[in-house]
Design brief:
18% strand, alpha/beta, 422 residues
Amino acid sequence: MKMNETLIFPTLEAVKEARKSIENVVNYTPLQYNARLSENLGANIFLKREDLQPVRSYKLRGAYNKIKSLFDAGQISNGIVCASAGNHAQGVAFSCKQLHIKGTIFMPVTTPKQKLEQVEMFGGNCIEIRLIGDTFDASKKAAFVFAETFGAAFIHPFDDVQIIEGQATLALEILEQKADSIDFVFIPIGGGGLASGIATVFKKLSKETQLIGVEPKGAPSMSLSIQNNSNTELEKMDGFVDGAAVKRVGDLTFEICKDALSDCISVDEGKVCDTILQLYNKEAIVLEPAGALSISALEQYKNEIRGKNVVCIVSGSNNDITRMEEIKERALLYKGLKHYFMVKFPQRPGSLKDFVLNVLGSDDDITHFEYTKKNSRETALAIVGVELSKPLDFDGLKQRMQQLGYFESYLNDNPDVLSMLI
């Protein structure tokens, strides 16, 4: 039997019922016109602000809808269980506290303290956190074992029809908030639950709207699956955009998205970081990497969206402040403003002064320097990081290094070395 013959698909009627179920818990988030983005792109850009939910992400919609349905059906006498390192855990914890039910949340041992504290705050005495394994996959396996052993209901983060129907309620809000036509909706994709929910509504009520899925470049699991016409697991993954980095999308979400999405594109993680900084500095909007995905994709579609009505789903704002230095670094690397070199320094006094005077441009800044003097050698290597004011200054900098004998190697092209520096 084919997979899609056994799957239960979400319906518009069920989405409307889900809305009634969650309306007293979930915020009716604003659809905000963004003047800066609209002017820059020559389009009408609207942001659906799901970062303004009580748990600061859309995940509450699906989690509460699923748990409430089990609660009403009397199917949670043994509690519920989930595995998550982020927003899903917070949505589940909040739902448990609202419904006064027992929840067990499995998270990796490596989960940042800030995320643990958030889950504890939202769940209170109604939840128990269990730290198992170094990865999400290890935590998920432990959660499955717990569910089977104790008869707890497992709450999947995305591959569940009632989760999808809960996420889909934000699409109903968008269509109410934007009375005239919507030409494009840009949707962040991790496991595909949000995109599947939005597609369920728009394919019934706004068929002309183009739905564009957006994934991180380092985790294009939906794009690969659509390309292969089969749900395909990634061999390796960059987990930086943690809210949307999934090795394998859901079976149900794949079946919906492969036919419903007009396109599925990926965005460089550095571009996402630059978007986060732009929104923070110019709009005072704080977003997590996954929350900035949809906005980061707009430039790829700048010709198609000109003069059009465009909605970007801002999916969440649970960003750990300790990540901001890495976010800034990745943004500078992406924009061609930060460069790392292996530099040969003569073993004599004044060599660094000569390098600064004769190699660096007037607006160049050394931001990283690692060097140990080797008395038995004529030259010694140093790792030097340089921040430029303009990307075009790079060629001149490298040329001066080579001409004066300082250049040994360029490190930005070596991902293994670069990962040790940022």
